[in-house]
User: Fold this.
Amino acid sequence: MKLYRALQSQGFGSRKGCVAQVRAGAVAVNGMVCDDPETEVDPAGLELTLDGVAWAFREKAYVLMHKPSGYECSHHPSHHLSVFSLLPAPLLQRGVQCVGRLDQDTTGLLLFSDDGQFIHRMISPRKGIAKIYRATCAEPVTDAMLDALRQGVALNDEPAPIAALACDRLDARTLRLTLAEGKYHQVKRMIAATGNRVETLHRETIGSHALPADLPPGGWRWLELADLQQLEQPWPSARS
Assistant:
C-alpha cells in the first residue's frame, strides 16, 4: 500500500492533503520520517506518526467511550453537545458511527465503529448480546417490581411483554438490569411500566466487556481483538 493511501484510509485527509503532509516531512513511518508519498508500506504492524502523535494502522476502527451525561448520540444534536465532538478528527473523517445509542442523560459504555457488519451484529437481538445497566429509581425497588421486570412488562407499540434477562436489586433504589434488545428508551419504559421512574441510568457492560474503571467520562480508547471477543460473547441462555 502506498503511504498516502494508508494515511487516507486512516482518516488523515483527502488524497491531495495526505500527499502534501508527506512531502512536507510531517509524517513518520515506524519512527522514521518519510517525504515520499508513493513509498510502499506494509499495513501489518504499521505505525504512522503525525504532529508527534503515533497511530497504529487499523483496517477497521473499533472504539469504546465512557459517555458522559449531556451528550447526544448524533452528528446533528438537537439540544446538547454531540458525542462525536469527543472523538479525534481522524476517527470522524473515516466515518465511525455509534453502535446503538444512549439517551443524552444516560452515561456509560458506548461503542463506535466504521465496520457495518460489526455494528449490525452488536445491535441485533438475534445475536443474544447482553447489555447491562445500573438504574437509580425515584422510588424504592420492590420485590414485585423485580418480579415484573423478570417476567415481562407491556410497553406501548410492542406486540408482546418484554422481560429482562436478569434483574437484581443493588440497594433500596438501585437495580441492575440485563437486556438483549436496545429499543427506544427501553430501560426507562420498562421501569415506568412497573410504576417507578428512572433518575439516573448507566450502561456498565456489553457482552462480557465492562466499561474500564480507569476510563474517565468523555474518554475513549481503541478496542483490541480480545475486547471484541468479549463484546460479542452472547448471554449464556442464547448460546447454541
Summary: The radius of gyration is 21 Å. The chain has a mean pLDDT of 93.
